[in-house]
Each structure stands twice: as structure tokens, then as C-alpha cells.
Specification:
Strand 4 and strand 5 form a beta hairpin. It is built from two helices and six strands; from the N terminus they run E-H-E-E-E-E-E-H. The two termini are about 25 Å apart. By secondary structure, it is of the alpha+beta class. Helix content is about 20%, strand content about 35%.
């Protein structure tokens, strides 16, 4: 597969309701944001809204954002399987670029209308703008 780049599309502002008792970002909230961002990335790449999260590898928490921090979530496709898409994720502080979290492998599965794994026919990252220019 050709080399893909990390795309940082989503930014989140850490608000009081996102904090844990240590007054830092609750890890579960961050994982919710990551799963949603990775799912959206997969839906756009596979052009199918019927996908599921299959696997998330070890989560490496590097630093803890505090209230008021702006974070950004980066997603990169690393492998296209027959019915799956494997992604890598990095989260960093938007202002300082300090790393917050890495996940080496998130796997999403493409489903058919019956909820069963289905081939997606994709082999590389594509961009929506290029799909429209091809018409």
C-alpha cells in the first residue's frame, strides 16, 4: 500500500464535563471521541455507513490534557483488508503539538445490509474531492 499521511481533522476543547476526579481529561471520553472519529474516517473511505469497530490494540496514554486544552485527533489508514480497514491514531495538544495518546491499530469491518462482513473493494486511501472530479 502507498504511504498514507496522518490526517488531523477533529479538534476538541476539553471542558469541565470531560474531566475525571484528577481534573484531567477522562480517558473514556477521549476513547469515545477517537472511536467516533475513526468510524467516520472508515465510513468515508469505504463509502458505506454500515461498519463496526472490530478491534482496538493497546492504548498508550502519554500525557493528560487539562480543562481548556485543545486537542486534535489524527487518523491514518495503514491496511486495507478484504472486508476491513486498519487505522492508526495519534492524539496531540493542538497548541503545543505534545503527544497525548497513540493507538497502533484500530480495525473496522465493512458490513452488508444484513450486518455480515462484506468485501469493500477498496485498496488505497481516496479523497471525496477526487471522487467528484472523476465524474
Amino acid at each position: 500500500m502507498e504511504k498514507s499521511i496522518m490526517n488531523f481533522h477533529t479538534r476538541k476543547w476539553v471542558k469541565p464535563e470531560d474531566l475525571n476526579p484528577n481534573q484531567t481529561l477522562f480517558g473514556g471520553r477521549l476513547l469515545q471521541w477517537i472511536d467516533e472519529e475513526a468510524a467516520l474516517y472508515t465510513i468515508i473511505q469505504l463509502e458505506n455507513t454500515h461498519i463496526v469497530t472490530k478491534f482496538i490494540s493497546e492504548i498508550n496514554f502519554i500525557s493528560a490534557p487539562k480543562q481548556g486544552d485543545i486537542i486534535e485527533i489524527g487518523i491514518m489508514a495503514t491496511e486495507f483488508g478484504r472486508s476491513s480497514l486498519t487505522l492508526r491514531c495519534e492524539v496531540r495538544n493542538k497548541m503545543t503539538r505534545d503527544p497525548i495518546l497513540t493507538i497502533e491499530k484500530l480495525i473496522f469491518v465493512n458490513l452488508d445490509e444484513n450486518g455480515k462482513p462484506a468485501p469493500h473493494g477498496k485498496t488505497k486511501v481516496t479523497f471525496v474531492k477526487d471522487r467528484f472530479e472523476a465524474e
